[in-house]
Amino acid sequence: MDIYDVMRTTFAARSYTDDPLPDDVLERILDNARFSPSGGNRQGAHVIVIREHATRQRLAELSMTGARRYTAQIANGESPWNPLHEPGPSAEQIAATDVPAQFTAPFLEAAVVLAVCVNLEVVAAMDQHLDRIGVISGGSVYPLVWNILLAARNEGFGGTISTMPVAEEPRVRELLGIPDTYALAAFVPLGKPTKQLTKLRRVSVAELATRERFDGEPFEA
């Protein structure tokens, strides 16, 4: 496929057919995705390939904590899990929230689930002393995650980025044997999408980019 076609048609696929994703195809996906950039080319990412049903069932269960708050805040008209404001719903309300199946189904129905971790000993977290949530270290791992999804699209497969289980990172770390020096970055369920979207809704370039300053004129050619 043309690279621009791949970029414009790679969507968050959360529903899959029963088609398998063979190891040789997955290896080809990872073999191409690994050429993503990372800080200092230190390549501190590690991917865990998860096929066992019991492990995926447990990941689905562990995703419920994050999904309950996410769902409760959405119902309350809030941007869920945003780092600037405490949730409006109480802890009791969040605990009583029913979680839609869409949050757990990809872990169970995808052909495979990838857990992507990043080695905190090799990332350059330039924002570690700022009075805000850290985001910079993601630059050394999320290009790989996106490359995986682009490569999967090129192979006729699809997936999504799920971070719901990260709310229970200590338990996930124990489940998957992740060392203390690594952080969970994303879970990527992959499979054959039940439907391939070709028209995605995104903001325009003029809405996305401005000239010279954040409050500058919209960027247009």
TrEMBL record:
The keyword tRNA processing does not apply. InterPro entries: Nitroreductase (IPR029479), Nitroreductase-like (IPR000415). Residues 13-192 form the Nitroreductase domain. CDD domains: Nitro_FMN_reductase (cd02062). Gene3D superfamilies: NADH Oxidase. Keywords: Oxidoreductase. PANTHER family: NAD(P)H NITROREDUCTASE YDGI-RELATED, NADH DEHYDROGENASE_NAD(P)H NITROREDUCTASE XCC3605-RELATED. Belongs to the nitroreductase family. This is Nitroreductase family protein.
